[in-house]
Design goal:
27% strand, 3-stranded antiparallel β-sheet, alpha+beta, 25% helix, flat, 276 residues, 4-stranded antiparallel β-sheet
Length: 276
């Protein structure tokens, strides 16, 4: 297949039909041997620009990029240890896991301390956790425990936005096991949009908002635009004190409704919550 600018494959738009060495080096990834097998693409969810294998675009059009989902594909780490990249107040680290690159991130002021460790990825169900040390030797440690310390008795470390690879201090807190279960359920992200609790009904061409809390599922009408669905989801989260959207960089991108329409959606959503 001949690739050209503007071609769309799933959640990726081709910006350039070829890649240059700096396209890889700028995001902390070693330049592959066959650079001709890659194109430069833009993630349609978060806007990130990064190389993508041509074969993957054809066979398995990506839903989200490695920054949205924190999972890359078919790249090699810069060193046999870990590859770090510090941008502003955030330090990113690429770790190879089962043939793919998984990226976690922390506050940049912890880079000096954390870069001295050798980090690995531990997968539990659908989540990836960052660990160091060995379980056999009794030295296994989780990154989130190093960042905020061990949880007090009866509590657990919770990743507020549901992303277990986001280990910035502002995203970690101590909560009870029951609260953590609620957060995990509310934080699922398995759609192409990249926003938790919102899916697209391709038959009706409408956006569906879903939220379950305390074993109760709340239903609202589908929305014509993603902006409406995002604000509806925001009202749900604000009411139940589940601020996951606030940690999603896509929130501001779709938070563009006029105040009047926001108020109408808020009143409708609250009526559905209070009416159940």
């Amino acid at each position: 297949m001949i690739f050209s600018e503007g071609m769309v494959f799933g959640g990726r738009t081709v910006l350039r039909a070829n890649c240059e060495e700096n396209d890889f080096l700028s995001i902390g990834i070693r330049v592959p041997n066959r650079i001709d097998k890659y194109v430069l693409g833009k993630c349609n969810n978060c806007g990130r620009v990064l190389p993508t294998r041509k074969a993957d675009l054809i066979k398995h059009p990506p839903k989200r990029c490695m920054y949205c989902s924190n999972i890359g594909n078919h790249f090699s780490v810069e060193t046999s240890r870990n590859s770090w990249n510090v941008v502003g107040d955030t330090a990113y680290c690429n770790v190879e896991y089962s043939g793919v690159i998984v990226q976690f991130f922390v506050d940049s002021d912890m880079y000096e301390e954390l870069s001295s460790y050798i980090w690995r990825i531990s997968k539990k169900k659908t989540k990836y956790y960052v660990t160091t040390g060995s379980g056999h030797k009794g030295t296994l440690k989780y990154l989130h425990n190093i960042v905020v310390g061990d949880a007090p008795e009866g509590l657990e470390v919770d990743h507020i936005d549901g992303n277990s690879l986001n280990n910035k201090k502002s995203n970690l807190r101590f909560i009870s096991h029951i609260e953590n279960i609620h957060n995990i359920r509310a934080n699922r992200i398995d759609n192409q949009i990249g926003i938790r609790g919102i899916s697209f009904d391709s038959k009706k061409k409408l956006f569906v908002v879903d939220l379950s809390f305390n074993n109760h599922r709340y239903y609202v009408k589908p929305w014509k635009t993603l902006e409406q669905a995002v604000w509806c989801r925001h009202i749900f989260e604000d009411y139940f004190n589940l601020p996951m959207l606030n940690y999603n960089p896509l929130f501001e991108q779709y938070n563009t409704l006029q105040d009047k329409e926001k108020e109408e959606i808020k009143n409708y959503t609250l009526s559905k919550i209070l009416g159940n």
